[in-house]
Amino acid sequence: MELPTWLKWTVKYRSLLFAVLYPILLCPLLVAYPGSVSKGAYALLLMAGYWITEVIPIYVTAMLPLAMAPLMGLLPSGVACREYMHV
């Protein structure tokens, strides 16, 4: 029995779909609870989802806080980088 075309496409691009749709799925967290705590939870859940599913390489996932913390206003980039380098 032949699979439907949409199902073949979904299976073929499941990693890309997860990488794009998962952050959108987490957005209500930011809207429902504005503030730095919800931003931190968003970053943590996003990293956990990417880490578990490995849709992007783990070493790239591990570097997400370096980009997300300054962009979300959680930490200045100097502090975030210092924490990663243990200086």
Architecture overview:
It is a multi-pass membrane protein. It is found in: Membrane. With 87 residues, this protein is mainly α. The protein has one domain. Helices cover 77% and strands 0% of the residues. The chain has six helices and no strands. Helix 2 runs antiparallel to helix 3 and helix 5 runs antiparallel to helix 6. The longest helix is centred in the N-terminal third of the chain and has 19 residues, at 14-32. It is elongated, with a radius of gyration of 16 Å. It starts with a helix and ends with a helix.
Radius of gyration: 16 Å
Terminal Cα span: 60 Å
Largest sheet: none
Q: How many structural domains can be distinguished in the coordinates?
A: 1
Protein name: Sulfate permease
Subcellular location: Membrane
Membrane topology: Multi-pass membrane protein
GO molecular function: transmembrane transporter activity
Give the topology:
Elements: H1 5-12, H2 14-32, H3 36-53, H4 58-62, H5 64-71, H6 77-85
Helix pairs in contact: 2-3, 5-6
Keywords:
elongated, mainly alpha, 87 residues
Structure, briefly:
The protein is mainly α and 87 residues long. It contains six helices and no strands.
